[in-house]
Design brief:
By secondary structure, this protein is an alpha+beta fold. It has 3 domains: 142 residues, no CATH class; 51 residues, SH3 type barrels; 93 residues, 2-Layer Sandwich (Alpha-Beta Plaits), CATH 3.30.70.100. It is 56% helix and 16% strand. It is elongated and about 110 Å long.
């Protein structure tokens, strides 16, 4: 009956709940603090009315009410629990902040919000609609196991995405290289997959569960510069000092490599055929490795030609070279 002792408080709680929802939406997402203040005020008002009317949101005392009063009782409690959830979520969105780690903060906020919504939903089912929570939770557990087995690959990707987000081995824009040789720039990362833009301008989609199991090298940390090496074989008839200076001059002439720190010329080995010089230099980004290496090879070739320095043949050609005709004739005459 509408004149029941609970009618006026229930009507007032419903009005406060509905007006609070409208005002909360009018505040907009750009004013989180104002939203939280409004939410607290309306939630406090609803709680005060419940307290003065001796209505407990977690108990249904007026079991004898029917009709409109029963509907008002249910809606008032649902609105109270909903405003409680939104108030808690407002605190989570504002005060759970990780300095300089917005993605991790957002992930943590989403997990807490999911727990709040789940708790409030179970509370509404148990305290408002008198649903058997124990049986419901047990049934939900069985259903969760079935879904978990059916979606284990997807769930593995999701939890791996959470682990990658919290561990943060890379961020959007980093250039990474996997242990199987796949490499590229990270252009997108969600809870299920990571997208790489390769040097061939193709997009590689990697499931997070697979990415979490392989080793990866982040080529963008501590910075984008990347070291390269080039092995050059010079004829052993030249002086090692002359070879070193010629290679150093060629590297200093390059415009595509990093000059600070300066490139290094390391003489690795010498034998009767060749002097092996390893050129060590850095490039500004892994994306420019090919043009930088092409330029260095061209400069080395030009410098050797200008200085009269001859390149040595590959080691394999020296090992498997056939003797010329004069050697064969001389060895045959010696045998006779």
């Amino acid at each position: 009956m509408i004149n029941d002792q609970f009618s006026l408080p229930l009507v007032l709680i419903n009005l406060l709940g509905i007006v609070g929802i409208v005002v909360w939406h009018l505040q907009g997402r750009n004013r989180p603090t104002a939203r939280l203040i409004v939410q607290i005020l309306f939630f406090a008002g609803m709680t005060a009315v419940l307290t003065f009317a001796r209505i407990l949101p977690h108990r249904v005392d007026e079991t004898h009410v029917t009709g409109l009063v029963a509907i008002l009782s249910i809606s008032a409690r649902v609105l109270w629990w909903t405003h409680l959830a939104w108030t808690l979520i407002g605190f989570v969105r504002i005060y759970i902040v990780l300095e300089r780690r917005p993605r991790e903060a957002r992930l943590l906020q989403d997990l807490i919000v999911a727990v709040v919504y789940l708790g409030v939903a179970l509370s509404i089912l148990g305290f408002v609609f008198k649903a058997p929570i124990g049986t419901l939770v047990a049934t939900s557990g069985v259903v969760a196991i079935i879904f978990g087995l059916a979606l284990q690959n997807t769930l593995g990707d999701v939890f791996s995405g959470i682990a990658l987000t919290l561990g943060q081995p890379f961020v959007i824009g980093d250039w990474i290289m996997l242990s199987d040789g796949t490499e590229g720039r990270v252009i997108e990362n969600n809870w299920r997959s990571t997208f790489l833009l390769t040097g061939a301008h193709n997009v590689v989609v990697l499931p997070n569960s697979a990415l979490a199991k392989v080793g990866l090298t982040n080529l963008s940390r501590p910075d984008e510069s990347h070291q390269m090496t080039l092995l050059v074989r010079i004829a052993a008839s030249h002086s090692p000092r002359v070879v070193e200076e010629a290679m150093r001059t060629a590297l200093r002439s390059s415009t595509r490599i990093v000059q600070d720190p300066p490139p290094i010329v390391a003489l690795k080995a010498i034998d009767a055929v060749a002097i092996e010089a390893e050129l060590q230099f850095r490039v500004a980004s892994p994306a420019v490795r090919t043009p930088a290496k092409n330029e260095v090879i061209d400069l080395v070739h030009s410098r050797c030609r200008e200085s009269g320095i001859f390149l040595a043949p590959p080691l394999q050609s020296a090992l498997y070279a056939l003797p010329d005709a004069s050697d064969i004739k001389r060895r045959s005459s010696g045998a006779l």
